[in-house]
Design goal:
The chain is elongated, with a radius of gyration of 20 Å. It is of the alpha/beta class. Strands 4-1-5-14-6 form a 5-stranded mixed beta sheet, sandwiched between helices. The chain has a 5-stranded mixed beta sheet with strand order 10-9-11-8-12. Helix 2 packs across helix 8 (about 230-245). It has helices at about 15-35, 65-75, 90-95, 110-115, 155-160, 175-185, 195-205, 230-245, 250-255, and strands at about 35-45, 50-55, 60, 80-85, 100, 115-120, 125, 125-130, 150, 170, 190-195, 210, 220, 225. Strand 2 and strand 3 form a beta hairpin.
């Protein structure tokens, strides 16, 4: 979906502080005993392919954000210590000093800029189209007039599809359902967020569909740090720059999305 679903009940500040007081101390003790510098990372691990826990029950946090923030920390000379936090509790946890940075598919917007320091954008999302591989009629959003389109209900994909002239929009419960409709030949195209479409193709090894390059909307994701922590921001930005220059960023991107990032 274009925006992450947030749980209805936000964590109160007391609960956040109680939850992470021990974690913060553990980080300090670990750094002191091992000589390692620890970067305490907060994430909400329910947003595949950016951050999630493997279905096989592994406790290791996986995803594009997780690999990237570990690489950033390593480049900075730190070890990333990742903590799973309710999305609404991430900024309060950082403000109270229990985590240093947020890596959780967080969209950069003006409201959040007033609360946190953002890194340079590390991912640009947006709505994209998937069609059958042999389709030559649809090459972009302008070609969807009068077509049958599958979308996930309640998303910006649905809102934007409904604006397309003459389109027959089929709203389904999940992104997986939209791809099933496409494979069954019941629709001409699917509209989803860029990472959703790319991850589906990678995870299922689908060879009978293709994702088009045309992008309707644009959202930038950034790592968030405490407001005023310009020193950490500069280190993170420098690490991201190095990872993009040495090709490590491209490797991580291709691992999760099956293609190299647009330049």
């Amino acid at each position: 979906m274009s925006k992450k679903l947030l749980t209805l009940c936000a964590l109160c500040m007391f609960a956040v502080s109680a939850l992470f007081a021990g974690c913060g101390q553990d980080s300090s003790d670990k750094a002191a005993s091992s000589g390692e510098k620890v970067l305490r990372v907060g994430t909400n691990a329910d947003f595949a392919p950016f951050e999630f826990q493997d279905e096989n029950g592994s406790t290791e946090y996986q995803g594009f954000d997780m690999d990237l923030i570990r690489a950033v920390a390593k480049e900075m000379g730190y070890t990333a210590e990742i903590q799973n936090v309710n999305f609404d509790g991430l900024i309060p946890a950082m403000e109270s000093g229990n985590i240093d940075i947020i890596a959780s598919g967080m969209t950069i917007n003006e409201e959040r800029k007033n609360q946190v320091e953002f890194s340079v954008p590390y991912y640009i999302s947006g709505l994209t189209i998937v069609v059958p591989k042999d389709n030559t009629d649809i090459n972009g959003f302008a070609d969807l007039k009068g077509k049958k389109i599958a979308v996930q209900i309640g998303t910006t994909s649905m809102e934007e599809a409904q604006k397309i002239e003459g389109a027959e929009v089929k709203a389904l419960n999940s992104s997986a359902d939209t791809f099933m409709e496409l494979k069954a030949g019941n629709v001409d195209a699917v509209i989803n967020d860029l990472p959703v479409n790319d991850y589906y193709i990678v995870k299922t090894k689908a060879t009978d569909v293709k994702r088009l390059d045309d992008k309707l909307t644009s959202e930038e994701y950034g790592f968030a740090m405490k407001k005023g922590n310009t020193e950490l921001k500069q280190k993170v930005d420098a690490a991201l720059k190095t990872l993009k220059e040495n090709g490590e960023y491209d490797k991580i991107y291709e691992k999760w999305f099956g293609t190299k990032p647009a330049k």
